[in-house]
């Protein structure tokens, strides 16, 4: 697989989600890509850090800002296995991320539940792409919660 494809980077986000799964965290993973290179990674660490804001996106963004010495990412793409929640959407808005690619939809907690269809919680220039490796991302979430029941 050519490294510049959405599927390749979503596979990398899925590897992060698998780390969360193995740590008994909700299995969400994220990577930030700039100039066809992964500059940061993150997976949910809410339980480990005892921090309700320790979502994969937030951790990946913080790492990206730190590595670049910048608080904005207009040229970067975030790949995340699950539709961002409203909190993460706000962080992505303020970071002016160029593109957000997510796998599985989240009808319960995703940003689309809280906005009108024609609105976007993201920066006006942010491109949104959904459904990349959706089946794989959905399966990991369903499997995690089935094991919890």
Automatic annotation (TrEMBL):
Enzyme class, broadest EC rank: hydrolase
Cofactor stoichiometry and binding remark: Binds 1 zinc ion per subunit.
GO biological process: tRNA wobble adenosine to inosine editing
GO function term, MF aspect, one: tRNA-specific adenosine-34 deaminase activity
Binding locations of Zn(2+): 55, 85, 88
Positions annotated as active site in the UniProt record: 57
Keywords: Hydrolase, Metal-binding, tRNA processing, Zinc
Domain CMP/dCMP-type deaminase, chain residue ranges per copy: 4-114
Domain of life: Bacteria
Family as reported in the entry's similarity comment: Belongs to the cytidine and deoxycytidylate deaminase family. ADAT2 subfamily.
HAMAP family: tRNA_aden_deaminase (MF_00972)
Description of how the protein assembles with itself and partners: Homodimer.
Protein name: tRNA-specific adenosine deaminase
Organism: Sediminibacterium goheungense
Name of the gene encoding the protein in the UniProt record: tadA
């Amino acid at each position: 697989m050519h490294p510049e494809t959405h599927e390749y980077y979503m596979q990398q986000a899925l590897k992060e989600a698998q780390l969360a799964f193995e740590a008994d965290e909700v299995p969400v993973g994220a990577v930030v890509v700039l100039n066809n290179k992964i500059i940061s990674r993150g997976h949910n660490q809410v339980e480990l850090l005892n921090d309700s804001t320790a979502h994969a996106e937030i951790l990946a963004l913080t790492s990206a800002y730190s590595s670049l010495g910048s608080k904005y990412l207009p040229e970067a793409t975030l790949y995340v296995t699950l539709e961002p929640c409203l909190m993460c959407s706000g962080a992505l808005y303020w970071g002016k991320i160029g593109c957000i690619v997510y796998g599985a939809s989240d009808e319960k907690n995703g940003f689309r539940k809280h906005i009108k269809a024609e609105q976007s919680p993201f920066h006006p220039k942010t491109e949104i792409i959904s459904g990349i490796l959706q089946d794989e991302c959905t399966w990991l979430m369903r499997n995690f919660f089935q094991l919890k029941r």
